[in-house]
Amino acid sequence: MRKSVSHYAGAWVYYTIAIGLAAVFAGPFLWMLSSSLKPPNEIFASPPTLLSSNFSFDNYVEVFRQAPFARYMLNSFIVAITVTVVALFLHSLAGYALARLEFPGKRLVFILILATLMVPFYTILIPLAMLVRDLGWINTYWALIIPAIPHAFGIFWLRQFFLGIPGELEEAARIDGASRMGVFFFVALPLAKPVLASLSVFFFLANWDAFLWPLVAANAPEMRVVQLGIQSFTGEHGNAWHLIMAASVVSIIPTLILFFGLQRYIVESVKMTGLKG
Amino acid sequence: MTQAKLSASEYSDAERERMRQGRKRAANREKREQTLVAYLFILPDLLGLLIFLVLPMLMAFAISFSDWRLTGVPEFVGMRNYEVIFKDPKFGASLGRSVLYTIGFVPAVYCLSLGMAVLLTRKARANFFFRTLYFMPIAMSLVVAGVMWRFMFDPGNGLINGLLSGVGLPTFQWLGSVQSAMVSVLIVSVWKSAGYFMIILLAGIQDIPRDYIEAAEIDGATRLQTFRHIILPLLKPTSFFVIVILTINALQAFDQIYVMTNGGPAQATYTLLMYIYEKAFREWNFGYSGAMSVFLFIIILMLTLVQVRFFRSADEKS
Amino acid sequence: MKKVFLLAAVALLAMLSFSVLQAQDDGLDFWTFEYDEPVDPFFTEYVDEWNASHDLQVERQEFPWAQYTGEILTTGIATGTAPDVFFISPGDWRRYAESGLALPLEDYIPDYLKEDVLQASWDAVTLDGHIYSLPFEMEPVVLWYSKSALAEAGLEVPTTWDELQAAAEALTTEDRYGILIPTAPGYYENFVFYPFMWMAGADVMNEDFSASVANSPEMAQALEFWGGLVRDGYAAPTSTGNDPTDERFPTGQGAMFVSGYWVYGWIQANYPEMLEDLGVAAIPAPTADHELATVYGGWTAMVYADTEHPAEAAEFAINMFGAEDNSRAAAWGIEYNTKLSPRASVIEDNAEFYSQFPHDVFANDIFPTAKAEPSYPPEIAQAVWEGVQDVMFAGVSGEDAAAAMAEKIDSYLLTR
Asked: I need a labelling partner for C140 at 20 to 30 A (CA). Which of A4, A123, B98, C113 fits?
């Protein structure tokens, strides 16, 4: 079948816009990458160069030499993965309950949960620090993991998702005698794959990028996380930009890998044929 | 068990009453079971939120009725902090800037991320590649993004002005002038956030059953019509989510801006969050800072409720 | 309402006292902000030496500079985890002293140290007759410049404000700014502004700190001159990198740079090829009839008032830079950083080092004219930089900005 002119015109429009956007969004990343391979005196030179004549991986070596950066990454991994897995499970439960189950105080609980998003972190920083200190969690993984798990964002999004899917499948399962827990686990949850995959990326990212709370709660050298490691290259009068760039490139990689891996779940076409209306 | 009779009129009044009671009891049992299961589902998260978020929030709320300067005991002053806020020109100005920022940020990110999500629904292998590229800014740290954009925004030798003048367009001072600083900061924030919300909208679009879209195409609808009449309405729950989150975030904008401009030049980018932060951690006036947070909280809450109502009435219209 | 508040306040206090009562692991906590990696051995060696010869062990922690005085120290004090010994900035010094957070040290400081350190340095850390922290470094602000840029434009090193203005104008080209000064609002901007303010004959506060004297024609002149540089386009409106180390200067995008002594060490480490082009001079005075003056900053070492081990903490702090053998104090400014020591003996004992360029300029010419950075409470400091920002960016005249500055400060003073 011959493809129509409009098809080719559409392709042309698609590629132009897509590539233009790609330049805008990923272009600066190129500068960051190229800076990480330059000696410090070339990063801000004018006119800027893409590939330095003094191309070298020295900065990367230096990053791992000056700070126990691998340890920092390990800490971040432990925290990010634990929080993501636990949070995903708990938020799905809560979101499902808010979407599908009736119970007294439901409205109030939902608003309360939303309200926790509306207070800036700086306002609760000191009370939270006091609390965590009283629990004896300073400089432990607990301080980094536990307070990070409850988060209205995930609950809210999963609630919206569960509200948006038709309930026939679940009703059918209930009629067949499945328990509510069973319906949740075997019917509703599998349908939430795109949202769960996206949330995985987001939660991992949020915890991988966490800076202020880990700084206050776990700054001991062996407990530090990646962002603290990057900030350790900032100084009194100026920053070691070449090291910050290299450390940042290293820091981006795990999140990108996760995104690569989960992308197809995020955009998996949910085949819901036969469920009209 | 009584044997089911053939027609309703064959039941006696007493039997009908018994059946009604039976149904009611079953309904109550069902309700209790549902409540129990619901609380079970919600409890871990709710408990966590109560301990680690709500409790500190309440403490900050209590402090807002006091004068506490880090050392010594908090002194109860009632509503004094709140009264001072009303008369404080700096509060109004900072709030105004936060609102301005929000007005710029929310529509820009929503439209851009929606556009990108729709663009990438076209069947093309390259989507995988493009999606990752649009995602990249999210993974970049604030400090690096900040220094990079400052470099690009350099009025003299920066890339942006270089490109503009290269195609004959006028150049700007970007972060170096009061008029353009807010716009510059918005550009960076939008750049950094669009990919994030693109993913959310993408996940939302995936929920729309393909049959609907295919049916529209068979009926001869253009892409634009399909978008307006099928995709957009069915995307409503996700859109609602995105816009509420965007608004809440925008009114609390602080980190990225602070790293880039410190609130300058001449306070052009000095948002309410900056004022709250500096009052607490620089001037040690925790009562006043707390009161401002409460104020902000109320504003955000009201705005969110308005958005809830708007989306619900829009639902009813369609 | 009051009941709810009381309940919550009791809960807050309970938490507070509980944290304080919790058994602190017995030792001294020593906090600083992050120093560059080559500087770390200075601290680790001293701490190791101390730990080897004392029962009470010291634990050192570093924090990123930007969060150190804000979030970190504040939260530490609030949660009862404040350090025993810590570095404090001139900007915060007064507030800590006035709030009773600093331990008076005059009884612990040995006589030889009292005589060795400049009297002006002691004055800068003294309040009501008590010495509240220990000065150990001085970083004067000067005019750095590119010798070749000046030579190309046929200019002599400026010695008056008119000459400086003219030079900034002449040196501004399409891809280069004539001069670089701090443009981000904050304590650092004030710091670099003070020399201009003082040399014009203006000041922020009067002698007994009871009223502001900022509303003066001299202040207007200083603001007008400084702000005018940015407003008229001879100074960059933003920095590249950070204000104290604006990367434009060593990459040829800025011809002159008003910044501190550290610039030398920074260029030496990162832009060694620029060293031979580097020139340094005192910041010009308004006219030949005015006296030269510059500011020096420098952090000081403070001991927490509520420390459990005041004597040991004081000893630890004092011996870091104030031991009778001044080699450690000298090494701080010579080997590890580029800073001056407030101890006169350091310059005497290291004459050879201080006869080399640019250290000779600093030791001989700059040092005598340097005044300590004043320590103003944040409300006053903010009024100053808002005035500067207004002239630079908001089109406000120097006169109006000076008046507004004085007004803000005076209304703040009413609340004290």
From this structure: C113
